[in-house]
Amino acid sequence: MFDVLLDLLFPRQSLTGTEGAFVTDTERKEMTLTPLLLHTEVLRQRGLRYIDTIVAAGQYDESDELKKMILTYKYKRVPAFADDLALRMHDAMHGLLPPPQRTKEAPVLCPIPLHWVRHNERGFNQATELARRIAHISGWTMQELLFRVRRTGHQAHRNRAERLTALIGAFAVLPDILIPKRIILIDDLSTTGATLEECARMLKNAGALHVSGLVAAAG
């Protein structure tokens, strides 16, 4: 009843301004994305030593709809977009990452953690919501393995070197936890890969063998 009242007072608008839904079927069809895979060799050439691969559902500047969906989901607290983003991320991962062999341990999905202050401000962790949905689609396990030790501020105004430096020591592995051998880190956006790199460093130091990153957009 409360949701119906809100819709009457503040009608939902889609990505292109259509009322009635956050995203329409037409918008879904028109938002064509090209999944991106960054191999280990490419990442090492960029100075990223720990993250092994990064998969993105699309390029951030490739689609105005994708950009608006991520920003609205993240900053205007519209979790409804998580379903669409998670599905596209899963499809990209399924198409680009080789499936785990039967004799090997299945990967565990690990969301990038927010600092508790930022979490309280935003009301939810966008990475956690994405990871939960991808876990449901894939049948893989989602597990929170990390916590954020300190706030690092906004990264947008920093160059690549500054981002890498700012994140050193920003994350830690949760105590008394068994670290899986294969881990896929989940986040909404990756630019330089600095956040994924620092999280991968902590996880590998704790015993992980292979750490990938899966994001909605790279840019």
What order do the helices and strands come in, and which of them pair?
Blueprint: H1 2-9, H2 25-30, E1 36-38, H3 40-45, E2 53-59, H4 64-75, H5 81-96, E3 108-111, H6 116-122, H7 126-138, E4 141-142, E5 146-148, H8 160-166, E6 171-173, E7 182-190, H9 194-205, E8 210-218
Parallel strand pairs: 2-8, 3-4, 3-7, 7-8
Antiparallel strand pairs: 1-2, 5-6
Helix pairs in contact: 5-7
Give the tags:
2 domains, 9 helices, alpha/beta, 8 strands, globular, Rossmann fold, disordered N terminus, two-stranded antiparallel ribbon, 219 residues
Notes on the protein architecture:
The protein has 219 residues and is an alpha/beta fold. It has two domains: 1-30, no CATH class; 33-218, Rossmann fold (3-Layer(aba) Sandwich). The protein is 40% helix and 18% strand. It is built from nine helices and eight strands. The chain has helices at 2-9, 25-30, 40-45, 64-75, 81-96, 116-122, 126-138, 160-166, 194-205, and strands at 36-38, 53-59, 108-111, 141-142, 146-148, 171-173, 182-190, 210-218. A six-stranded mixed β-sheet has the order 1-2-8-7-3-4. The protein has a two-stranded antiparallel sheet with strand order 5-6. β7, α9 (194-205) and β8 form a beta-alpha-beta unit. α5 (81-96) packs across α7 (126-138). The N and C termini lie far apart (40 Å). The model is unreliable at 1-11 (pLDDT under 50).
